[in-house]
Design goal:
This protein is an all-alpha fold. The protein has 7 helices and no strands. The radius of gyration is 18 Å and the shape is globular.
Amino acid sequence: MADGEQGRLMTLWYLARAAGVVTMVMFTLSAVLGMVMPGVRRPERRFWLQYVHRSAAVTGLVLLATHVVAVIADSYVDISPTVLVWPFGSGYRPFAMVVGALALYSLVLASLVGAARGRLAASASFTKHWRKLHIAASAGWLLSIGHALLAGTDRSTPWMLGITLGCLAAVATAGAYRLNASPARVWRTQ
C-alpha cells in the first residue's frame, strides 16, 4: 500500500475515533445540563444552561454524523452503509453495531423532539407527551456508552476507560442532584 493511501486510512481511523469519543462527551454534557436545569430557579441562569444544553446536543449530532461517515468510509474494517438499517450484517462486531445503531436512532429521535418542542408547544397533546419522547435521549446516551465499551478499538485503554467512567459519574451525579433537588417537582414535564 502506498504511503498516501496508508495516511488516508489512518486519518479516517483517527477521525472516527476522535469524533466518537467527543460525541460521547458532548452528549454527556447535554444530559448533565438537562438533568440539573429543573433545579435552577434564576431565569437568566436557566436560559444559559438551556443554550449550552442545546449547543452540546447539536455539536454531538454533528460529531455523530462525522463518526458514522468516517467509520463507513474507512476501508480497514468491514462496515458498510447498510449497517444503519441492518446492523446485524456488519462484519465488525455486529452486536456492538446494533447497540450503536440503536443509540443513533434514539439520539436523532430525541433531537427531533427537542427541536419541535418550541414549535409544537401550543399542542396540549405534544406537551403532555414531550418528556416521554425526550427520554429517548437518555436511552441513546446509555446505548452510546455501551457502544463505546463494545466497539471501540481503544475501549480497554486506561484513557478511554477513564473518559467513559467520567461520563457515567457525571450523569450519575447529575441524577442524584436532581433526585435530591425536589423529587415531586423535577420529574414532571417542565
